[in-house]
């Protein structure tokens, strides 16, 4: 039998991989994708917990799913703006290496 | 006992107008006189009418009082204040004593107001200050109001209000010509005289206040007369003695007794109507009134009575001797006033209140008459002086040119003194009316039958003979001197020949001045009828008896009357021998100077009392204040305490301790240290801020890991 | 070992593998495709958890729209790979250590605080009925109406922002780069 634990562990692993991607990659597109992965991991946990609660209660329970719905919407917005920024950075610096975007250093 | 006013018919409802009539007059003159350019006659008329109104009110009050057989009436006007145990109303007390005072004050006051219209008209012209005419009458009305507050007060505090009011008016009027001396030269002499009067009176006021405090604390927490007199019956005698003696100090100040009389002669710096009204007839009798009012206290303590009597008697003699040696016509009268006040104080001191009051009234008549006549003489001389100057002017101008300017200097040095008796002589011919008035006054003062002074003085002497022989002899000798100096004055001023040009050209005064003189002269003649020493004629005694209870009515004692009259006649005879037979010539010294020598010098110089005060009081006071100012205040407080101790300590503390250590090494170190640390920290921390997004993200992850770790191991 | 578990493990392996592939592939296009694969696997998990609507949204929005956008940008910029990093040499080992710590900690925390051993049965057919969807829509538009509206505003703002960012106004002679 598949228990909630498994989903949680899977979610944690996916989240960690996403975080790792954010930290070690220098391509902003990959970093963005990693962020999407982390959001997905969180979404998976939401749905799993919602399902667990639904089964315990014995009646339909949508709050977890609705939250995921919102996350997807926000992610879409984020991607739209983020990609626009990346394009803009590329236009000025002619590169997408974020290690070269460090003019705000102290 | 309830304090509400007795309102028993009659004209008592008019009582407040006693005070408000003069106040109304003064405000009319104060507000409108200058604005609408009132004529002098109108200003004087308003003031005199105000005074006259007060007189009429006084008459009506006295009449109403006699209808109810002198039963005291207290007309409550308003509550003054109420603090703790002390609650005072402004209440008018109308009994036979205060009604008598009111009559004298407002009656004589009205005559003097009228006289002053003529006098001030000329005085302000001689001094080239015509604008002050209204001011004089404003002051005069203010004085009248204060004096009436004094006598109508129903408590010691209300009395004190009037007491201070008249003192203040006295100051204003003595210093009326504050920027000059009596000879109209630019000087502060007059204002110094005013200050002297005020300060001497302050000493007396101090006594009055202490007495009031003692009364309040010891006699039932009240200052109302009836209350405290009732309480005094059960009070320890020591307290009463203290009260009466402190009151005596107040009396000595206001009524010019030893040792505080010194201000009165100097007070002659004021215009003559002031001298007559305040410093002879009314204000200075306030002390006598105070003792009389406090009779229930004095009656309880014979020792205090004895002291009061002796103070009065000694003053009477002492001042009379000084009067002999004076040359100024007003100074003679001033010392005479001091002397006569001594008679009154002695009288009330020995419990002869009726006699004292009788003399007070008679004295008010004839001394006012004498002063006003003296003022008339002075103005006459002043007119003569102007007359002579106008005649001489063309001659003088020529003379000056010939005398190389020395004469001009001399002329300015020698200012003609219209008050100096040595500048007079033979004035009975130039000023006949004034002469007769003056003669009547002088005879009344000397105690010649049948003038008012004869009756009143003999009554005092009779009482003294019966109770205080020592005082009797002092007073009798004083009466002898009185007759002598008055004789001297008459001979010097009115007989012989004119010793100066102005005296030769002196002119009689106008009717506005001589008519009040005539009225006063009549009063001086018939005033004795108030209280003749015959059965059924003790009118004043009976009247005042309403206040004092049954009064001893002494019959005429021919021995006393004979001795005093004889002495007075002898004194006048001696004065004729010295001054009348061989009149004084121009520039001659006083003929008494040679035979009496040092004694006369003493009289001339007022026994050096002023110098004595200067040496005993003023000089040590100056020295002390010098010492206090120089050594204590400046050197000790300023130089040592302030500069060295306080400022020095402060400077030391602030510069070395606080500045060097606390501030620079403490606070600065902390502030600089913080700055250094934050500089050092930020120099290192800015390396963390490396601009790499990945590095920041790593920091965030580190934070997350640490927080999760904390949650695990919590 | 039930069939449920076998399916889960298989899918989980694919998910992890595709995630790793995304995170470490040198080619950006490959990374994008790995991510698409990952999204699809997660969508299958949603179906297994009885959330068909979310699964569909996941595929259409994420795997569809968003990833198309990504690929589009990748193509636009024409950068498929970057030269080796010369900066931040300690970043990679530190990140790996921290990531492992994060995984261990979060797992430990989740499991220790709430030991969720409840079995998740596969959903029955009722989960796929329209009534289920209706109920969810009802919750979304009544209970969560305000967040929904705010989200729509957010999307609008993001759209405007993206347009403003991408828009290029060429101003002759201005030269301050703020146009």
- Percentage beta strand of chain C: under 5%
Strand fraction of chain A equals under 5%
Examine the secondary-structure arrangement and name the CATH architecture of chain A.
Orthogonal Bundle
Q: Radius of gyration of chain C from the CA trace?
A: 22 Å
Residues in helices of chain A, as a percent range: over 70%
Order of helices and strands of chain A: HHH
Q: Count of DSSP E strands of chain A?
A: 0
Q: State the CATH class of chain A.
A: Mainly Alpha
CATH top level of one domain in chain C is Mainly Alpha
Helix proportion of residues of chain C, in percent?
Answer: over 70%
Instruction: Provide the CATH topology of one domain in chain C.
Output: Four Helix Bundle (Hemerythrin (Met), subunit A)
The geometry of chain A reads as elongated
Low-confidence stretches of chain C: 173-179
Number of strands of chain C: 0
Oligomer: heterotrimer
Strand count, sense and barrel status of the largest sheet of chain C are: none
The class by helix and strand makeup of chain A works out as: mainly alpha
Number of helices of chain A: 3
Structural summary, described in words:
The complex is a heterotrimer of chains A (106), B (714) and C (179). By secondary structure, chain A is an all-alpha fold. Chain A has helices at 4-24, 28-57, 63-93. Chain A has one domain (4-100): Helix Hairpins, CATH 1.10.287.3510. In chain A, 55% of the residues are buried. Chain B has a domain at 301-388 and 418-567. Chain B has helices at residues 17-32, 40-67, 96-126, 133-152, 156-174, 189-218, 225-232, 237-254, 263-266, 272-281, 286-293, 295-300, 302-324, 329-349, 353-402, 406-413, 427-430, 432-446, 452-467, 469-494, 501-504, 511-526, 539-548, 558-580, 593-596, 598-604, 609-685, 693-713; strands spanning 73-83, 86-94. In chain B, a hairpin with a 2-residue loop joins strand 1 (73-83) and strand 2 (86-94). Mean pLDDT of chain C is 83; it is low at 173-179. Chain C has 6 helices and no strands.
Q: What's a quick, concise take on this entry?
A:
The complex is a heterotrimer of chains A (106), B (714) and C (179). Chain A is mostly helical and 106 residues long.
Write the layout of secondary structure elements.
The complex is a heterotrimer of chains A (106), B (714) and C (179).
Chain A: H1 4-24, H2 28-57, H3 63-93
Chain B: H1 17-32, H2 40-67, E1 73-83, E2 86-94, H3 96-126, H4 133-152, H5 156-174, H6 189-218, H7 225-232, H8 237-254, H9 263-266, H10 272-281, H11 286-293, H12 295-300, H13 302-324, H14 329-349, H15 353-402, H16 406-413, H17 427-430, H18 432-446, H19 452-467, H20 469-494, H21 501-504, H22 511-526, H23 539-548, H24 558-580, H25 593-596, H26 598-604, H27 609-685, H28 693-713
Antiparallel strand pairs in B: 1-2
Helix pairs in contact in B: 1-2, 1-4, 2-3, 2-4, 3-4, 3-10, 3-15, 3-22, 4-5, 5-6, 5-10, 6-8, 8-11, 8-13, 10-15, 11-14, 13-14, 13-20, 13-26, 14-15, 14-19, 14-20, 15-18, 15-19, 15-22, 15-23, 18-20, 18-22, 19-20, 19-24, 20-24
Chain C: H1 3-24, H2 28-48, H3 52-77, H4 91-113, H5 130-142, H6 145-166
Helix pairs in contact in C: 1-2, 2-3
């Amino acid at each position: 039998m598949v228990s909630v634990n498994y989903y949680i562990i899977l979610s944690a692993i996916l989240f960690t991989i996403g975080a790792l991607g954010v930290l070690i990659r220098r391509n902003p597109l990959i970093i963005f994708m990693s962020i999407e992965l982390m959001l997905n991991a969180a979404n998976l946990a939401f749905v799993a917990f919602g399902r667990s609660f639904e089964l315990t209660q014995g009646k339909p329970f949508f709050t977890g799913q609705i939250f995921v719905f919102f996350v997807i919407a926000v992610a879409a917005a984020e991607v739209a703006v983020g990609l626009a920024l990346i394009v803009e950075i590329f236009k000025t610096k002619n590169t997408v290496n974020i290690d070269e975007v460090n003019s705000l250093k102290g | 006992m309830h304090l509400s006013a007795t309102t028993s018919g009659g004209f008592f409802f008019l009582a407040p107008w006693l005070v408000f009539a003069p106040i109304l007059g003064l405000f009319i003159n104060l507000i409108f006189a200058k604005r609408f350019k009132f004529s002098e006659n109108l200003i004087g008329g308003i003031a005199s009418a105000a005074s006259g109104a007060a007189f009429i009110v006084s008459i009506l009050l006295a009449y109403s009082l006699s209808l109810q057989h002198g039963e005291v009436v207290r007309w409550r006007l308003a509550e003054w204040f109420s603090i703790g145990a002390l609650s005072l109303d402004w209440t008018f007390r109308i009994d036979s004593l205060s009604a008598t005072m009111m009559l004298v004050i407002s009656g004589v006051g009205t005559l003097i107001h009228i006289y002053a219209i003529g006098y001030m008209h000329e005085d302000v012209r001689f001094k080239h200050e015509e604008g002050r005419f209204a001011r004089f009458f404003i002051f005069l009305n203010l004085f009248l109001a204060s004096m009436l507050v004094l006598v109508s007060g129903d408590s010691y505090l209300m009395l004190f209000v009037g007491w201070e009011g008249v003192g203040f008016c006295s100051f204003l009027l003595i210093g009326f010509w504050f920027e000059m001396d009596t000879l109209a030269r630019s000087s502060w002499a007059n204002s110094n005289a005013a200050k002297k009067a005020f300060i001497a009176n302050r000493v007396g006021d101090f006594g009055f206040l202490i007495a009031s405090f003692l009364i309040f604390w010891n006699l039932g927490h009240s200052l109302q007369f009836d209350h405290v007199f009732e309480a005094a019956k059960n009070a320890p005698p020591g307290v009463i003695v203290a009260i009466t003696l402190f009151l005596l100090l107040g009396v000595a100040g206001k009524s010019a007794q030893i040792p505080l009389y010194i201000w009165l002669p100097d007070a002659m710096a004021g215009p003559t109507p002031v001298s007559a009204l305040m410093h002879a007839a009314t204000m200075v009798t306030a002390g006598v009134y105070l003792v009389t009012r406090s009779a229930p206290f004095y009656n309880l303590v014979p020792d205090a009575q004895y002291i009061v009597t002796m103070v009065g008697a000694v003053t009477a003699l002492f001042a009379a001797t000084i009067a002999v040696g004076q040359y100024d016509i007003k100074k003679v009268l001033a010392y005479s006033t001091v002397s006569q006040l001594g008679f009154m104080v002695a009288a009330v001191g020995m419990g002869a209140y009726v006699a004292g009051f009788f003399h007070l009234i008679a004295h008010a008549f004839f001394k006012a008459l004498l002063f006003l006549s003296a003022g008339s003489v002075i103005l006459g001389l002043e007119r003569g002086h102007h007359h002579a100057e106008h005649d001489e002017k063309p001659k003088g101008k020529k003379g000056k040119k010939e005398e190389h300017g020395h004469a001009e200097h001399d002329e300015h040095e020698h200012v003609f003194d219209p008050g100096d008796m040595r500048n007079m002589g033979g004035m009975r011919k130039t000023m006949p009316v004034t002469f007769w008035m003056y003669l009547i006054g002088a005879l009344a003062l000397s105690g010649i039958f049948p003038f008012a002074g004869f009756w009143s003085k003999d009554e005092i002497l009779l009482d003294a003979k019966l109770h205080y022989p020592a005082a009797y002899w002092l007073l009798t000798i004083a009466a002898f001197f009185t007759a002598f100096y008055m004789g001297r004055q008459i001979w010097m001023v009115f007989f012989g020949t004119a010793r100066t040009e102005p005296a030769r050209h002196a002119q009689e005064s106008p009717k506005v001045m001589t008519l009040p003189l005539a009225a006063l002269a009549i009063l001086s003649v018939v005033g004795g009828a108030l209280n003749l020493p015959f059965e059924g004629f003790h009118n004043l005694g009976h009247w005042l008896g309403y206040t004092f209870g049954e009064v001893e009515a002494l019959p005429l004692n021919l021995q006393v009357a004979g001795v005093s009259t004889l002495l007075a006649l002898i004194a006048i005879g001696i004065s004729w021998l010295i001054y009348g037979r061989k009149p004084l010539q121009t520039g001659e010294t006083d003929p008494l100077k040679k035979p009496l020598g040092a004694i006369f010098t003493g009289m001339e110089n007022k026994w050096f009392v002023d110098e004595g005060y200067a040496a005993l009081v003023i000089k040590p006071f100056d020295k002390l204040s010098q010492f206090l100012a120089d050594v204590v205040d400046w050197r000790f407080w300023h130089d040592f305490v302030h500069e060295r101790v306080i400022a020095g300590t402060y400077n030391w503390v602030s510069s070395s301790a606080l500045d060097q250590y606390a501030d620079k090494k403490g606070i600065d170190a902390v502030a600089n240290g913080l700055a250094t640390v934050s500089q050092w920290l930020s120099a290192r921390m800015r390396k963390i801020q490396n601009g790499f997004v990945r590095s920041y993200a790593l920091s965030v992850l580190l934070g997350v890991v640490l927080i999760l770790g904390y949650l695990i191991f919590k | 070992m039930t069939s449920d578990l076998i399916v889960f493990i298989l899918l989980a392996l694919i998910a992890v593998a595709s995630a790793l592939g995304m995170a470490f592939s040198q080619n950006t296009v490959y990374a994008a495709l790995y991510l698409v694969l990952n999204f699809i696997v997660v969508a299958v998990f949603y179906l297994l958890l009885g959330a068909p609507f979310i699964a569909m949204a996941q595929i259409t929005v994420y795997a569809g729209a968003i990833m198309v956008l990504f690929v589009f940008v990748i193509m636009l910029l024409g950068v498929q790979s970057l030269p080796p990093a010369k900066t931040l040499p300690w970043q990679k080992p530190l990140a790996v250590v921290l990531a492992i710590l994060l995984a261990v900690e979060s797992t430990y925390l989740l499991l220790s605080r709430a030991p969720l051993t409840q079995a998740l049965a596969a959903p029955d057919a009722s989960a796929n009925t329209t009534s289920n969807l209706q109920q969810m829509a009802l919750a979304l538009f009544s209970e969560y109406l305000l967040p929904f509206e705010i989200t729509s505003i957010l999307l609008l703002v993001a759209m405007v922002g993206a347009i403003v960012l991408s828009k290029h106004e060429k101003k002759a002679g201005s030269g301050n780069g703020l146009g």
